[in-house]
Sequence to fold (230 residues):
Amino acid sequence: MGQYRICVYAISKNEEKFVQSWMKSASEADLVIVLDTGSTDQTVPMLEKLGAQVSQQIISPWRFDEARNRSLALVPEDVDICVCVDLDERFEPGWRDKLEAAWKKDTLRARYRYTWSFNPDGSEGCVFWIDKIHARKGFRWEHPVHEVLVYTGDGPCNTIDADGIQLNHFPDYKKSRAQYLPLLELAVKEKPDDDRNMHYLGREYMYRREWDKCISTLFRHLEMPQAVWK
Fold:
């Protein structure tokens, strides 16, 4: 037991191939909480056997932010630090000690290094910093897909860089992306001034080879005054 009470929380659906390695990665936390949204494989019994607290809910109509918010609601209020990690992601060992060394009494959020993809030779591909480690209160998830964690508290959101923490992504490329397009169209409809959602919608049209929609959507993105990604 460290100086802070830490909880890893996640959502799952048919993730049995990832459970064992994910639970090993998450085991440095004090507790692991998973909201399963309809697995038909062995995800739930495997998680429970390895010590996770699992609840099951069907979310209809499906949207990722609703699932994330319901999973966060399962985290006890006496938890100091919440760590949102998908089942296809793995922390490198020692992440808890590094997090506790960086976290202060007034910290509300932590940034850490994330390798989103690896090259065929095993070297790192796309790498950036993410901030899905946060205090128990004052946060919620927004957007139907490509959801983001939003600070809803009063005052500044004190954020630290947790140097040395490394999270790696090992996605299952066989999983369908069919739900992404309608959810992105919904996201843009809900918040038409959000340049990030507009960019992702244009990219999704590109993935689907819907070229006219792709071009017009990405031009709309570039015309937005807040579209300042390099």
Notes: The first strand starts at residue 6 and ends at 12. The helical segments are 16-26, 43-49, 64-73, 95-102, 180-190, 195-207, 211-223.
